[in-house]
Design brief:
By secondary structure, the protein is mostly beta strands. The protein has strands spanning 3-7, 10-13, 18-25, 34-39, 46-51, 58-60, 68-73, 78-83, 92-98, 115-116, 120-125.
Protein backbone atom coordinates (compact mmCIF):
# COMPACT_ATOMS: atom_id res chain seq x y z
CA UNK A 1 0.00 0.00 0.00
CA UNK A 2 1.33 3.41 -0.97
CA UNK A 3 2.21 5.79 1.82
CA UNK A 4 3.23 9.44 1.62
CA UNK A 5 5.11 11.06 4.48
CA UNK A 6 5.75 14.80 4.45
CA UNK A 7 8.42 16.60 6.42
CA UNK A 8 10.17 19.96 6.54
CA UNK A 9 7.45 22.26 7.73
CA UNK A 10 7.96 24.81 10.47
CA UNK A 11 7.93 28.45 11.50
CA UNK A 12 9.78 30.97 9.35
CA UNK A 13 9.83 34.73 9.02
CA UNK A 14 8.46 36.47 5.98
CA UNK A 15 11.04 36.46 3.21
CA UNK A 16 12.56 33.22 4.42
CA UNK A 17 12.76 29.79 2.85
CA UNK A 18 11.75 26.23 3.64
CA UNK A 19 12.04 22.95 1.79
CA UNK A 20 9.31 20.37 2.16
CA UNK A 21 9.88 16.71 1.40
CA UNK A 22 7.43 13.93 0.68
CA UNK A 23 8.69 10.37 0.72
CA UNK A 24 6.68 7.67 -1.02
CA UNK A 25 6.83 3.94 -0.55
CA UNK A 26 5.22 0.90 -2.04
CA UNK A 27 5.46 1.25 -5.83
CA UNK A 28 7.40 2.48 -8.88
CA UNK A 29 7.57 6.16 -8.05
CA UNK A 30 8.45 7.47 -11.52
CA UNK A 31 5.16 6.26 -13.03
CA UNK A 32 3.05 8.70 -11.04
CA UNK A 33 2.45 12.42 -11.01
CA UNK A 34 2.97 14.17 -7.70
CA UNK A 35 1.32 17.29 -6.42
CA UNK A 36 1.50 19.70 -3.53
CA UNK A 37 -1.64 21.28 -2.14
CA UNK A 38 -2.25 23.48 0.89
CA UNK A 39 -5.10 24.37 3.18
CA UNK A 40 -5.20 27.47 5.32
CA UNK A 41 -7.57 27.76 8.29
CA UNK A 42 -11.12 28.39 7.14
CA UNK A 43 -10.23 27.99 3.47
CA UNK A 44 -10.59 25.31 0.84
CA UNK A 45 -7.64 23.13 -0.07
CA UNK A 46 -5.84 24.67 -3.02
CA UNK A 47 -3.35 23.56 -5.62
CA UNK A 48 0.26 24.64 -5.22
CA UNK A 49 2.45 22.69 -7.66
CA UNK A 50 2.61 19.48 -9.66
CA UNK A 51 5.32 17.49 -11.39
CA UNK A 52 5.13 14.72 -13.97
CA UNK A 53 6.39 11.21 -13.35
CA UNK A 54 9.81 11.72 -14.89
CA UNK A 55 10.04 15.28 -13.65
CA UNK A 56 10.08 16.83 -17.12
CA UNK A 57 6.93 18.90 -16.68
CA UNK A 58 5.84 21.14 -13.84
CA UNK A 59 3.01 23.55 -13.16
CA UNK A 60 2.38 26.08 -10.44
CA UNK A 61 -0.39 28.14 -8.96
CA UNK A 62 -0.05 31.79 -9.93
CA UNK A 63 0.30 32.73 -6.27
CA UNK A 64 3.54 30.76 -5.89
CA UNK A 65 5.04 30.98 -9.37
CA UNK A 66 8.63 32.26 -9.33
CA UNK A 67 8.85 31.66 -5.55
CA UNK A 68 8.30 27.90 -5.22
CA UNK A 69 10.02 25.07 -7.07
CA UNK A 70 8.81 21.49 -7.21
CA UNK A 71 11.28 18.71 -7.98
CA UNK A 72 11.61 14.98 -7.51
CA UNK A 73 14.23 12.33 -7.02
CA UNK A 74 12.90 9.09 -8.46
CA UNK A 75 15.76 7.09 -7.01
CA UNK A 76 14.84 8.22 -3.51
CA UNK A 77 11.09 8.19 -4.27
CA UNK A 78 10.83 11.68 -2.89
CA UNK A 79 9.25 14.89 -4.11
CA UNK A 80 10.33 18.29 -2.85
CA UNK A 81 8.86 21.74 -2.62
CA UNK A 82 11.44 24.49 -2.27
CA UNK A 83 9.70 27.60 -0.98
CA UNK A 84 11.40 30.99 -1.09
CA UNK A 85 10.34 34.57 -0.42
CA UNK A 86 7.67 33.23 1.87
CA UNK A 87 4.73 35.43 2.77
CA UNK A 88 2.31 35.27 5.71
CA UNK A 89 -0.41 34.22 3.25
CA UNK A 90 1.59 31.06 2.53
CA UNK A 91 0.73 29.86 6.04
CA UNK A 92 -1.14 26.57 5.71
CA UNK A 93 -0.94 22.83 6.11
CA UNK A 94 0.85 21.48 3.05
CA UNK A 95 -0.06 18.09 1.62
CA UNK A 96 1.59 15.99 -1.03
CA UNK A 97 -0.59 13.76 -3.15
CA UNK A 98 -0.47 11.17 -5.93
CA UNK A 99 -2.98 9.17 -7.95
CA UNK A 100 -3.75 5.54 -7.22
CA UNK A 101 -3.34 4.60 -10.90
CA UNK A 102 -0.15 5.24 -12.94
CA UNK A 103 -0.98 8.64 -14.41
CA UNK A 104 2.20 10.50 -15.16
CA UNK A 105 1.06 13.82 -16.61
CA UNK A 106 0.79 16.86 -14.39
CA UNK A 107 -2.56 17.98 -13.00
CA UNK A 108 -3.68 20.90 -10.87
CA UNK A 109 -7.01 19.32 -9.93
CA UNK A 110 -7.33 17.64 -6.55
CA UNK A 111 -9.79 15.23 -8.19
CA UNK A 112 -6.84 13.67 -10.02
CA UNK A 113 -5.19 12.63 -6.76
CA UNK A 114 -6.34 9.76 -4.57
CA UNK A 115 -3.59 9.29 -2.01
CA UNK A 116 -2.65 12.05 0.39
CA UNK A 117 -0.02 12.53 3.02
CA UNK A 118 -0.78 13.56 6.57
CA UNK A 119 0.27 17.16 5.97
CA UNK A 120 2.96 19.39 7.39
CA UNK A 121 2.36 22.82 8.93
CA UNK A 122 4.06 25.87 7.45
CA UNK A 123 3.73 29.10 9.40
CA UNK A 124 5.13 32.37 8.06
CA UNK A 125 5.32 35.23 10.54
CA UNK A 126 5.25 38.85 9.47
Amino acid sequence: QVQLVESGGGLVQAGGSLRLSCAASGRTFSMYRMGWFRQAPGKEREFVATISGRGLSTDYADSVKDRFTISRDNVKSTVYLQMSSLKPEDTAVYYCATPRSPYSATSSSSKDYDIWGQGTQVTVSS
